Amino acid sequence: MRIAALVVALTIALSLLAARAGDVTAAQSVIRAQEEAFVRDDATAAYSYAAPAIKEIFPAPDIFMSMVQNGYAPVYRHKSFEFGESKTDGDWIAQRVHIIDANGEAWEALYTLEQQPDGSYKITGCSLLKAGQSV
């Protein structure tokens, strides 16, 4: 009986881990798609990955793109963009990204994403620090 209970508990735990891994993969796909939209200068596509709260602050794709170009240059243009560790908490995912900007400087970005009612993930924010800089 104990073995059966252990097997059930282990199966449930592994299912939850697999679901979370799928969520992280989905979130990374959203971040990557937005990054590719920036590379193409496709403001409409890049804007489509922003969460509703971001769209309230930046009510049009061109306004959003201008903010990214001026405030997040390493995200907008870079030589390297690689995923680091991620954390999940309910419907939220935090994803670190290691960036080498166009000038060869290292940066750390922390993206936050929230699962939407339709099950998709949207980007709720991005904090950017030079690598080695403390918060």
Looking across the biggest beta sheet, what order are the strands in? Answer: 1-2-3-4
Structural class by SSE content: alpha+beta
Poorly predicted regions: 5-19
How many helices? The count is 5
Overall tally of domains? 1
CATH class wording:
Alpha Beta
Quote the beta fraction: 25-35%
Number of strands: 4
Order of helices and strands: HHHHHEEEE
Keywords: Signal
InterPro entries: DUF4864
Pfam families: DUF4864
Protein name: DUF4864 domain-containing protein
In short:
With 135 residues, this protein is α+β, with helices and mostly antiparallel strands.
Structure keywords:
single chain; 135 residues; alpha+beta; Nuclear Transport Factor 2, Chain: A; four-stranded antiparallel sheet; 48% helix
Description:
With 135 residues, the chain is an alpha+beta fold. It has one domain: Nuclear Transport Factor 2, Chain: A. 48% of the residues lie in helices and 31% in strands. It has helices at 2-39, 43-48, 52-57, 61-71, 73-76; strands at 78-89, 92-101, 106-115, 121-130. Strands 1-2-3-4 form a 4-stranded antiparallel β-sheet. The radius of gyration is 18 Å and the shape is globular.
